Amino acid sequence: MKQQLLAVVTAAMVGIGVIAAAPTPAPAPPEVPAQVERVAAVFDGINAYRAAKDLEPLLFSPEISEGSLEWSLEMAETGVFAHSPDPGSHLPRGSSREGEIIASRWDRDALGLVDQWIASPPHEAALTRDFTVMGVGIAMGDDGKMYGTVHFGRYRDADAIDAFVDVRTWLDAIGAEGAASLEPAAPPVPTGPTVSRIAGADRFESAVLLSRRYNDPAVTQTAYLVSGEAFADALSAAPAAAQPGGALLLTRREQLPPPVGEELARLAPARVVVVGGYGAISAGVEAAVRELMPLAQVDRVAGADRYATSAAIARDAFPGSADAFIASGLRFADALSAAPIAALRGAPVLLTPPGELAPALHDYLDERSLVSVTVVGGTPSVSVAAERSITEVTGLRASRLSGTDRFATNALAARRTSVAEQETVLLVSGHDFPDALAAVAVANRVGPLLLSTPTCVPAGTLAMLESTYRPSEVLLLGTEGTLGAGVAALEHCD
Fold it and tell me: What per-residue confidence (pLDDT) applies to 34?
């Protein structure tokens, strides 16, 4: 779609003179300010898309564009990405219908704004409605991020508003100097983060690629092998694997994937911990590990169920911990957010069913001399009844770390593990667990672990990226099917 749109827009811009392609000598058109070129690219891109849908083109309104620029400048100056409170106020009177769309991105690809709108059904609907005019405003924030606003209007009376066929026609009418109304101060050089991605052919290879990047064989002492087909055991093992000298790899239940075996051989740990019962990782996989690593100590740490396994890992990896974190064993996102905090505190993540405290956890808490217990997630994840049981067993009042949703809970957790100005931030799916599992084990070595939707970045998460962490790199973990182009563009979720 983007290549087709580029071709259509290039042809359109040749026609209006923004891209000169005349075969015979002609007077050079006035120099077009860079910002106005971006406005022209957005205007022509939208009309090219409408043409592809057999819709009438919209006219260009410089007056509406001034209002669009005002709102883009507001977003750029405040760093708050949001719709204006009253989109109709940016249009002259007489419109029977108004609309507003906004987008932001780190590069200066104005046509990319149009691609973002086309890819978003609510925005695409606005592009194809029966408006008659539009205005375009683009501004750059101090960090180099580009903000774009388009306002649409429908005017039955053609004389009710000054409008032009396109941006070049308007420029010819007023001269290049008159374009200052759409040309704010020269944009700064972009300083936004580089967005990169680690993604293998499958979840097992993705974990291997992450391990190759961040695990040094010279310091790796213990490798935790967990199921990549279910999340519970991996989330319990992650804080242990995040300790100095630890590593975490995923396996199939019945087969040790070849890349995983190769990474185990590369790391050559003194100990390999197979996590979970034989229903999670078969005896055949354990035998393959023993054959591959004849000099390593190979242990299996498991309980009767996921809850007992989490308690078994806690006893094995954190025998002297005075803290404990408790999360749902049925909802992976909260435990995922808890793991980096637990790792930082040298504490386990214990899993429980939502409605009541698991018996295995009751026994574990009863035998420990804890000084703090933190419940991660809301009451649908860990109930008030379970919380009361924690108090009865430990004599401690558990604190609860919970936001309005999994993303807000993750943001709260991330603030407890990291300070501002991080070099790298890890971005993983908050809806699908496989690629996120391996990330937890390296998060405290690399940078904060934040959750995203598959198509865009939640508001609170993006605010932390832009205002708190300001990283030089945002590292996406997973394929485009897990974290799509909108996430790679750090596109804000409306």
Answer: 74
CA distance 286 to 283: 5
Q: What is the DSSP string of 12-42?
A: HHHHHTSS---SS--PPPPPPPHHHHHHHHH
Tell me the sheet residues that pair with 400. Answer: 375
- Give me the residue label for tokens 């919209």: 58
SS percent in the chain: helix, strand, coil, step 5: 45, 20, 35
Is 0.85 topped by the overall pTM?
Answer: no
Cite the beta strand spans of 303-416 per DSSP E.
Answer: 323-328, 349-352, 372-376, 399-401
Using an 8 Å Cβ cutoff, are 453 and 493 in contact?
Answer: yes
- Type of residue numbered 311: A
Alpha-carbon distance of 341 to 348, in angstroms, equals 10
Q: Is 398 within 8 Å of 387 (Cβ atoms)? A: yes
Q: Identify the burial level of 485 via C-beta atoms within 10 angstroms of its C-beta, where 0-12 means exposed, 13-18 middle and 19 or more buried.
A: middle
Question: CA 154, CA 94: separation in Å to the nearest integer?
Answer: 8
| Residue 353: count of CB within 10 angstroms of its CB | 18
Integer angstrom CA distances of residue 468 from 193, 387, 448, 460: 13, 32, 11, 11
Rg, C-alpha atoms of the chain? 28
User: Could you tell me which residues come within 8 angstroms of residue 176 by beta carbon, excluding any fewer than 6 positions away?
Assistant: 30, 31, 32, 33
Placement of tokens 């003179």 in the chain: 17
Helix (H) or strand (E) holding 489: none
Interatomic CA distance for residues 248 and 82, integer angstroms: 40
Count of CB atoms situated within 10 Å of the CB of 71: 24
Amino acid at 96: S
The pLDDT tens digits for 447-461 are 888 999 999 999 888
- Report how far residue 470's alpha carbon sits from residue 476's, in angstroms, rounded to the nearest whole number: 16
Distance (Å, rounded) from C-alpha 56 to C-alpha 131? 9
List, for residues 132-166, the tens digit of each pLDDT value: 999 999 988 876 788 999 999 998 876 778 889 99
Q: What is the dihedral of CA 191, 66, 79, 97, to 10 degrees?
A: -130
Q: Phi and psi for 134 in degrees, rounded to 5?
A: -145, 160
Instruction: Write the CA distances from 120 to 103, 131, 237, 463, integer angstroms.
Output: 11, 19, 38, 21
Tokens of 481: 């099917």
| Run of H or E including 313 | helix 306-317
In contact, 447 and 424? CB cutoff 8 Å: yes
**Token pair of 132, please?**
């008659």
Is 75:102 a contact under the CB 8 Å cutoff? Answer: yes
Structure tokens at 135: 């205005």
